[in-house]
Amino acid sequence: MTQSISNLAKSVRMLADMEEPIGQILKRTELADNLTLEKLSCPLGVILIIFESRPDALVQIAALAIRSGNGLLLKGGKEAKRSNEVLHKVITSAIPDTVGDKLIGLVTTREAIPDLLKLDDVIDLVVPRGSNKLVSQIKDTTKIPVLGHSDGICHVYVDKEANIEMAKQIIKDSKTDYPAACNAMETLLIHKDLSTNGGLDQLVVELKNEGVELYGGPRASTLLNIAEARSFHHDSHTECIVTENLEVAETFLCQVDSAAVFHNASTRFCDGARFGLGAEVGISTSRIHARGPVGVEGLLTNRWILKGNGQVVEGDRGVTYSHKELPLKA
């Protein structure tokens, strides 16, 4: 418990110490003489986040919202209702009066969610953290953009040129370090050569020793005499290849189109804190607008500032465009 609180505090301090993300000039362009265009970072607006019964999630999400300048509505799991209420009180009491304690709101009843999902003129983004069923229900009942993962399946592929001892450790960690996490391995893929040279047997023994219940595809279930999986899902979250062949690894990294793709490393590394983001509001498998662990950057958008000197378009007859890239600082 002490270690968990210490890690949580470290994440929050990391966010506090990061460079101010709001109002950063991302690009400056001279469109024409005395006509300068700037692209600035800015908050998304108001975000509704529905999350699981993990009180540390509330702290991380609230810290990210404050750092990115977004308004926030929180709905945590009922099992952590009391903890969430206390943490929410602590956080809002620490917000300066110049900002106001209404920056972060806490929703305590499930019944309020359908009404909130109708407020597409007030809420700018919904982030559901949880099961595929939850994400699907949210998407089906709101016009508000939804950021999240659906099935979020993680695969580990062990190539024929893998170091089997390394593969055993990566598979063990990917599956058993925290099985409930969305970055835990669901599917293990094995090169066919490993089924004849003893490599597959070693990997299976490693998993069974950890108490993992195995299900196989049509070939694997027959080969290993295990129950056949009822279905296979392919929604991509984090994929790993274990191989000593760098050419094969590079092909995998370039061609597997997932939110995160790893070579010789556990899928459990796919995490906002471990990526150095400080924390995450969740992990997205969608392509718009953020993908993978979503930290401060994923909670920002941009706006354009044009500074002129009386210029008009006039059918583009009166402007000579230069489109010259300028230094970020004038």
UniProtKB/TrEMBL annotation:
Signal peptide: none annotated. One of its GO terms (molecular function) is glutamate-5-semialdehyde dehydrogenase activity. It catalyses: L-glutamate 5-semialdehyde + phosphate + NADP(+) = L-glutamyl 5-phosphate + NADPH + H(+). InterPro entries: Ald_DH/histidinol_DH, Ald_DH_C, Ald_DH_N, GPR_dom. It is an enzyme of class 1 (oxidoreductase). Pathway: Amino-acid biosynthesis; L-proline biosynthesis; L-glutamate 5-semialdehyde from L-glutamate: step 2/2. The keyword Cell wall biogenesis/degradation does not apply. Keywords: Amino-acid biosynthesis, Kinase, NADP, Oxidoreductase, Proline biosynthesis, Transferase. GO terms for biological process: L-proline biosynthetic process. Its EC number is 1.2.1.41. PANTHER family: DELTA-1-PYRROLINE-5-CARBOXYLATE SYNTHASE, GLUTAMATE SEMIALDEHYDE DEHYDROGENASE. This is glutamate-5-semialdehyde dehydrogenase. It comes from Lupinus albus.
